Amino acid sequence: MATPALGVARLIGRLVLGSLAHLGRFAALCAEIARGFREWRVWIPRTVTESANIGAGSLFIVILISAFAGAVTAFQSGYQWQTSLPLYVLGTLIVSTVVLELGPVLVGLVLAGRIGARYAAELGTMRVTEQIDALESLGRSPASHLLIPRVLAGVIMVPVLTIIADVIAVAAGWYGVKQVLPLTDSDFAYGARAFYRPFDGYYSVIKATCFGGAIGLISCYMGFNTKQGAEGVGRSTTAAVVASSVVILLLNAILAKILLN
Amino acid sequence: MIELRGVKKRFGEQVVLDGVDFTVDDGETVALLGQSGTGKSVLLKHINGLIHPDEGIIMVDGLNVATLKRAALAELRMRIGYVFQNGALFDSLDVFENVRLGVSDETKYKDLSFCQARVLECLRLVNLAPEVARKFPAQLSGGMRKRVGIARAIAGEPTYVLYDEPTSGLDPVNSDIIDSLVKRLSDELSVTSVMVTHDVRGAFRVADRLALLSGGKIVLQGTPEEFHESELESVRSFLKRDFETPEAA
């Protein structure tokens, strides 16, 4: 008779084996991508097209979210403000908050939903309708045709969109804080520059690059390994968004620990 | 020549192929028959290396497909045209780009004027008008999608063409058109063809030889006459549905 302990052991065993299988397949996909880099004539033009697509397609939502995030940061700073501190510190606070954290993480999470879902759904549909098999049967590499352009587009465009988001959010914060506190432009600019280090900008871009890579790899992996028709595509898409978001939060903590301490 | 010896394949607990021996000589057309779910498409995918066998040998052009390195397999696949059951056309590309992808020689693929001529030639071979080249797969009927799939498969001038249920889901008129097309392409292009089907009448019309897959094994491989004369129960019961019902009616 199966005891509860045996049931728990079986469950843990299944989870461990399932995780190892995922790891193995993920490593195989990464190896496939690495091999595909030799076919640069195939992936370079497709990467340019893919980058343009996700860049232009995501620009509006990134501008909208960063503008609101910057403005809300400013309003909350105004609400919590203590009169004993000089007002120019608000410039430091808003720029640091946006560049170090809000810009890359918000853009990463939004794009995990937007392009992660798109990649997983596209590749998943191609898998279940045998389009990926068709590509292979034509002697063409799915890595150079489908995977590398998508992963690289994420690696290139997430940092670009993050820089845009940083600029928009700081501008919105600057404008917003002036609506709630008697802060002058020169005070804000002084505060923004006073404690700003060039590394902060690099840190923002490094994080965004890692997030872009994670979104691209995870969503391509989920889509590429889709099974069982339309339901499978739905599962892959949801899994791609959830896994990308979780990995972004994990990477955020890891990179903060490594690069800021 | 295509030769499968002792090919076994299982998915989990389900044994799909249980020691398949199957040969196709150069220039002939062989129809692979069998009921739905017997592993015909799985067997076909073994031939161009989309699925690897658990056991057995698959020789195509003297090469063992299962042990080929990636580059050699890609090169071999360029000599094998594959027609998928549902077309498997790239839905984000128009018909021209779909068929162009079938041009396996990279230098020729980059040559736009060559590709334009080749795509139109392939569309003509499958009885499609040149205007179809600018349409997207979603704008085509089922029969047209199948024909574009065939055009893509022959665009690279392959030595072998594998057809996976080319007439499934089509009405009798379109089925006849596709069958005639398969026959004509085999004759005109001198390709070696394997056609997976459960349409017995079409298979008898098109194929030089037939093979019946049942219970994970090829139970009979021979000419249409040998099939008609066979006393095997699995062969008789399979043929009975298609050859006796119309007479009874």
Q: Which keywords apply here?
A:
heterodimer; A: 261 residues; mainly alpha; 8 helices; 0% strand; B: 249 residues; four-stranded antiparallel sheet; 10 helices; 10 strands; globular; disordered C terminus
Q: How much strand content do the residues of chain B show? A: 15-25%
User: What integer value in Å does the Rg of chain A equal?
Assistant: 22 Å
Number of strands of chain B: 10
Tally of contiguous helical segments of chain B = 10
Give the N-to-C terminal Cα separation of chain A. Answer: 54 Å
Question: How do the strands of the widest beta sheet of chain B line up side by side?
Answer: 6-7-8-3-9-10
Give the % helix of chain B: 40-55%
Arithmetic mean pLDDT of chain B: 88
Give the mean pLDDT of chain A: 92
State the separation between the terminal residues of chain B, measured CA to CA: 41 Å
- Beta-sheet strand percentage of chain A? under 5%
| Topology order of chain A in helix (H) and strand (E) letters | HHHHHHHH
- Secondary-structure element pattern of chain B, one letter each: EEEHEEHEHHHHEHEHEEHH
| Unreliable spans of chain B | 245-249
| Sequence stretches where pLDDT stays below 50 over 5 or more residues of chain A | none
Reconstruct the topology from this structure:
The complex is a heterodimer of chains A (261) and B (249).
Chain A: H1 4-36, H2 40-80, H3 89-128, H4 131-137, H5 142-180, H6 185-194, H7 198-224, H8 229-260
Chain B: E1 2-11, E2 14-24, E3 29-33, H1 40-47, E4 55-60, E5 63-64, H2 70-77, E6 80-83, H3 95-100, H4 106-110, H5 112-125, H6 142-154, E7 160-164, H7 172-189, E8 192-196, H8 200-206, E9 209-214, E10 217-222, H9 224-229, H10 233-248
Parallel strand pairs in B: 3-8, 3-9, 6-7, 7-8
Antiparallel strand pairs in B: 1-2, 1-4, 4-5, 9-10
